Amino acid sequence: MTEAAARAHITRFNNAVTSGDWSQFIAALHPDAVMTFIGPPIGPFHGRDAIARAYAADPPTDTLKVVDIRSESETDLITFEWSRGGTGTLTLHHAAGQVNALTIRFD
């Protein structure tokens, strides 16, 4: 998509972590979105409702700091640092103005 869209996603995520309100973050996801983790043994989660339930059941406590963003066509690759240490990459795929796939890789 664009760097601005990627940064908006990270802002929604960080706001949700600090406030505990995931509604704006979840609303930006496509109804059929898929969230996959590479590293930790969780997921994948299929559909916006399943993703919402996953965050409600086990909400993250770390915010993300963007290190780099590369955007091409409908895909954003975001390199990040966790607020409490550690790094990773987040790949976002977009369709119809919404995030329809998230892949989170822990380094």
Automatic annotation (TrEMBL):
- Residues forming the SnoaL-like domain are 10-91
Recorded hits in Pfam families, A to Z, give: SnoaL_2
Q: What is this protein called?
A: Nuclear transport factor 2 family protein
